[in-house]
Amino acid sequence: MPQKGVKVIAQNRRARHDYFVLETWEAGIELKGTEVKSIRLGKCSLKDCYAAVKDGEMFVYGMHISPYEKGSYFNTDPLRPKRLLMHKVEIRKAHQSVMQQGLALIPLSVYLKEGRMKLELALCKGKKLYDKRDDMAKRDAQRDIERSMRARN
To answer: Most buried one in 32, 68, 121, 134, CB count within 10 A?
Structure first.
């Protein structure tokens, strides 16, 4: 997602390995002041986090934002659920997909876009072990092709 005015802060690379990404959305994140400062320093982890709908609102759980060093008593719990800012239509659509088809909502990346924190949220379907092996084999074959092309030139 390298666009003008976009700075990627954290990515969940494991998500693309473990899941098929069916659809993605961009969502704002409701954060406290010290959390924003900590994220700007790159102290954010998307490992083992997921999103869920609760009472018509979307929350992300398990997103770790390290406490800001100079934040003193303003710091909050690093693993507190953070509310995502999305349109109600998008939230409803995502919730219906999760409930009916057994899919998961997985955050893919956190980035800064025009001064605002954004989260790329994906509707994902879990991969089986043979799917993961197939992806690795394709990637290895592509790497071998590129290597031989470079050697030839």
So the answer is: 121
